[in-house]
């Protein structure tokens, strides 16, 4: 039989409750026995004190305890005075005398049932009477060694004339006491059984109630597994299951967005590939038909389209590898200031030909990051290429760097034209282009900034775009510093 989570929870709760209640019942029964014996012991101590007073009065009348020497019958008369019983016209004689041989009284007619006095707790059998000289008159030597709590001196005229010793009560031997304890234990057991049944019912209800959201999550997970990313789980509670429902909804939303982006990307890539292929196909057909002659200019046009197509395919491949985490990185401790100076030096000639004046603002001290120098160079080069493509001539390019306690900020900003405010967050989307200023005519694939973001994410960094004070676009890179 397959155990569901609800059954497991119910069984676990019931088992814990059974163990707890069973342990409590056992401890209660043991405490009840000990407590009842302790109570009887306290009662016997009171009886022992009363008996010592009766023996003191007897000693005052007789002057000694000789009549009790090895004879409990005289002591039995005093014991019966401790708890006198109501008598009737047909008085029941002393049970000891009956036991001694006066059997005729057992057949004496009576209107009430004959009751022979018994000593249910064995009080008399556990009692010892010792005179002032330490001689044991009644009882055994073991009884005479009773604890101090069960000893009572017999005092006459402020003098100790003897003592009583009572052996401790170890067990409940009489029927009434045993019945009382048995009834209490039975009631405790029935109560425990009732509580266990109630716990079982409540645990089943509680398990079903707690796991009710899981049924909804199970259905939603099945739908998501089938590709139905629009499925959402109902948030029924504000506990951990509620948080799990929210997380599953967030996951489904992300999967849905990724699916839409993937479909859009495939459509955009198809369109981007179709454009250069159409141009190449048209020029080749024109060459075949003789409409256009095979000149160096025609070959150069075909070459440019092939280069553009190859770059687009290479960008798509790099972005796919970055998303899959398959790009290789060789992380090392790098001086980011030296790397920036080196990249700018290589681009100085191209920037000057594009009519861009270079400005730098670097701190005098070195800043170190854990990075792949080749990948960071690729990011910086991509940003410089964008500035060369889209900044008006003449223009300005400013590269600056600032450091804080834990991060280094690198900014590359250029002059006009700028980017609309609503497009700053969209620049890092795949194949996104801003009209006019970010057109296909400049040769961009629309994947460069997406690749930059993926590469920086692998470095635990971040990239953001914002307006530049120079009138164009400012791209801010943040990387964690190392000591």
Can you give a write-up of this model?
This protein is of the alpha+beta class and 483 residues long. The protein folds into three domains: 5-176, no CATH class; 240-323, Signal transduction histidine kinase, dimerisation/phosphotransfer (DHp) domain (Helix Hairpins), CATH 1.10.287; 329-480, Heat Shock Protein 90. It is built from ten helices and eleven strands. It has helices at residues 5-62, 73-82, 95-100, 141-144, 175-225, 240-289, 296-324, 336-353, 373-390, 448-458; strands at residues 127-131, 136-138, 151-156, 159-166, 332-335, 356-361, 368-371, 395-403, 407-415, 462-467, 471-480. A five-stranded mixed β-sheet has the order 6-8-9-11-10, with helices on one face. Strands 2-1-4-3 form a four-stranded antiparallel β-sheet. Strands 5-7 form a two-stranded antiparallel ribbon. A hairpin with a 4-residue loop joins β1 (127-131) and β2. Residues 88-117 and 436-441 have low confidence and may be disordered.
**Overall morphology:** elongated
- Average pLDDT number: 78
User: Tally of extended strands?
Assistant: 11
> What count of structural domains?
3
Beta percentage is: 5-15%
Q: What is the number of helical segments per DSSP (H or I, 4+ residues)?
A: 10
Strand order of the largest sheet: 6-8-9-11-10
Please write out the topology.
Elements: H1 5-62, H2 73-82, H3 95-100, E1 127-131, E2 136-138, H4 141-144, E3 151-156, E4 159-166, H5 175-225, H6 240-289, H7 296-324, E5 332-335, H8 336-353, E6 356-361, E7 368-371, H9 373-390, E8 395-403, E9 407-415, H10 448-458, E10 462-467, E11 471-480
Parallel strand pairs: 6-8
Antiparallel strand pairs: 1-2, 1-4, 3-4, 5-7, 8-9, 9-11, 10-11
């Amino acid at each position: 039989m397959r155990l569901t989570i609800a059954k497991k929870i119910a069984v676990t709760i019931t088992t814990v409750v059974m163990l707890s209640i069973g342990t409590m019942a056992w401890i209660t029964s043991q405490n009840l026995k000990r407590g009842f014996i302790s109570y009887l012991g306290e009662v016997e101590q009171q009886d022992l004190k009363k008996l010592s007073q009766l023996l003191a009065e007897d000693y005052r009348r007789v002057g000694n305890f000789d009549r009790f020497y090895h004879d409990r019958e005289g002591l039995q008369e005093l014991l019966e005075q401790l708890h006198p019983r109501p008598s009737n016209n047909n008085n029941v004689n002393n049970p000891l005398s009956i036991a001694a041989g006066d059997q005729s009284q057992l057949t004496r007619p009576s209107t009430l049932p004959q009751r022979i006095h018994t000593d249910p707790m064995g009080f008399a059998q556990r009692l010892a009477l010792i005179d002032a000289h330490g001689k044991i008159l009644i009882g055994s030597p073991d009884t005479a060694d009773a604890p101090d709590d069960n000893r009572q001196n017999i005092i006459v005229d402020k003098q100790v004339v003897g003592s009583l010793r009572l052996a401790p009560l170890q067990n409940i031997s009489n029927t009434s006491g045993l019945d009382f304890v048995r009834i209490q234990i039975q009631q405790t057991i029935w109560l425990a059984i009732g509580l266990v049944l109630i716990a079982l019912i409540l645990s089943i209800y509680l398990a079903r109630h707690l796991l009710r959201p899981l049924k909804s999550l199970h259905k939603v997970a099945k739908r998501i597994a089938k590709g139905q990313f629009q499925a959402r789980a109902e948030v029924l509670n504000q506990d951990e299951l509620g948080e799990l429902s929210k997380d599953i909804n967030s996951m489904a939303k992300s999967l849905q967005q990724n699916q839409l982006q993937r479909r859009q990307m495939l459509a955009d890539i198809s369109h981007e590939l179709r454009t250069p292929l159409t141009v190449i196909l048209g020029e080749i057909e024109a060459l075949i038909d003789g409409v256009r002659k095979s000149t160096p200019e025609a070959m150069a046009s075909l070459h440019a389209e092939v280069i553009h197509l190859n770059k687009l395919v290479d960008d798509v491949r790099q972005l796919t590898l970055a998303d899959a985490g398959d790009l290789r990185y060789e992380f090392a401790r790098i001086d980011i200031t030296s790397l920036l100076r080196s990249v700018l030096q290589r681009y100085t000639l191209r920037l000057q030909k594009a009519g861009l004046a270079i400005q730098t603002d670097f701190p005098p001290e070195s800043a170190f990051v854990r990075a792949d120098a080749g990948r960071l160079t690729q990011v910086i080069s991509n940003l410089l290429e964008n500035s060369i493509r889209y900044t008006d001539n003449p223009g300005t390019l400013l590269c600056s760097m600032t450091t804080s306690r834990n991060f280094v900020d690198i900014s590359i900003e250029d002059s006009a034209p700028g980017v609309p405010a609503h497009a700053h967050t969209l620049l890092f989307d795949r194949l996104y282009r801003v009209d006019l200023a970010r057109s296909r005519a400049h040769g961009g694939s629309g994947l460069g900034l997406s690749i930059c973001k993926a590469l920086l994410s692998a470095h635990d960094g971040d990239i953001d775009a914002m307006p530049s004070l120079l009138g164009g676009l400012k791209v801010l890179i943040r990387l964690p510093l190392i000591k």
